[in-house]
């Protein structure tokens, strides 16, 4: 297949310096496939990169294309790209692990020492992400989905896999009472996953009325406005009310509220990536209530299963997919994504959508 003469992408050059510009054509390796972008999601980490050219300890060192939530259609395959053919619809796992480091050998591939993660500054040199008309990836990154599956559905696989991994790290939820701080993409997907796992009560705390309403559509049984401190203070004074708390806001205040709402002997699961090296932790609450702190990072071995949950309709991401723009409208898309009273998950659409 003839490679298009001009491939466009959204390339980060610095804080609030995201340029829609030509990107270099990529050669196709024997075990690789070339994909035409169907859809790519704007994640909270993409927003942090856009605003600050960093995400936590991952700092921009050279320009790279953003985007680690992406689906597309295969347009070309290398001779050793087994199981895939032109025309196949796929969702792409942004993480390619080595399989041989201590993390991988321990069965925790999400902690791979040599991971190649697309659209992130965590790897040096940085690896371009999916905000491109076409891109080349190893075939093993791809999960094939039915051809008629909308990109707007399967593109949510990566954030759903983060939620599924967090829920599995927490342990069985059947009959448990759960609180989630943060009603963004991950918080709402944790709510949906917790519902599928049989949680009895699923409470979401978020200052945005729009996000609280959306959380209810995604599976929450009730919601809390954390700006109204009486409710959280009363839960804290009563010794907490929830068996398991998930912190999904990426905010230090959200983490503190999460711990304060967990009862004695419960668990607090840290999912949101707090973009600072400093965070006040309520250690006294954790010690006197003997709350287990569990951290999660990305996902581990649940990517394909998460795609299947979307394809089969077990998880419906419709309520959180609130806006879509063509890739060329990337600046409008990012502006919209920061409007938390109108949007949760904003998508960039490629030629395949």
Automatic annotation (TrEMBL):
GO terms for molecular function: oxidoreductase activity; zinc ion binding. Its cofactor is Zn(2+). SUPFAM superfamilies: GroES-like (SSF50129), NAD(P)-binding Rossmann-fold domains (SSF51735). Residues 186-300 form the Alcohol dehydrogenase-like C-terminal domain. Pfam families: ADH_N, ADH_zinc_N. Residues 29-146 form the Alcohol dehydrogenase-like N-terminal domain. Keywords: Metal-binding, Oxidoreductase, Zinc. Signal peptide: none annotated. Belongs to the zinc-containing alcohol dehydrogenase family. PANTHER family: SORBITOL DEHYDROGENASE. This is Alcohol dehydrogenase catalytic domain-containing protein.
